Prior knowledge:
Blueprint: E1 2-6, H1 11-21, E2 26-30, H2 46-61, E3 65-74, E4 80-81, H3 85-91, H4 95-105, E5 113-123, E6 130-140, E7 157-159, H5 171-177, H6 179-193
Parallel strand pairs: 1-2, 1-3
Antiparallel strand pairs: 3-4, 3-5, 5-6, 6-7
Helix pairs in contact: 3-4, 5-6
Amino acid sequence: MKKLLIATHNEHKLQEFRLILEPLGIEVVGADELHIPDCDESGTIFHENSLQKALWAMRHANLPTLADDSGLCVHALNNEPGVFSARFAEKNGGYQNAFKILFQKLKDTSDWSAHFTCCLCLAIPDKEPLFFVGNVSGKLTNKPNDSQSHFGYDPIFIPDGFDKTFGALPATTKKDLSHRGRAVSELIAYLKDKPL
């Protein structure tokens, strides 16, 4: 099997990539397994951060590396928290507190529309990095239904065409529908034509 490093320490994210990529004959390894430290993210857009993470991990491991940067963009808040989504939650003591702050900021508007973006960067030694982007539109809810997943902002985001949050949808449904799933679909199409 070809080996692909996923530049993340997030076990949930790593499992998502394993579910998608291992049926293609790609062995997925994470940054923890190879003792790769976190990369400082200084980008202001998703492309910049995913590129920084991919190159950082690739140079440590000398392996083809996939990194993603993703986030929740709330339209009425000038697309915040965006690239700072994870840091916004961390700074405010976790996702539950981040949800409350977002709801407070939105209390005077009826526009709760939002979208998730995922930008994947594939870095292969001695080749130019490649990008694959996925988006999914929807709206926020401050009354999430029972959640199977408490990952990130999933419990408060309802994708268009559904009446359940990402957190309440089955993993197989979310895999195809999500911003990450859509970006990975582009990646898979590329890898079928040009394997690692």
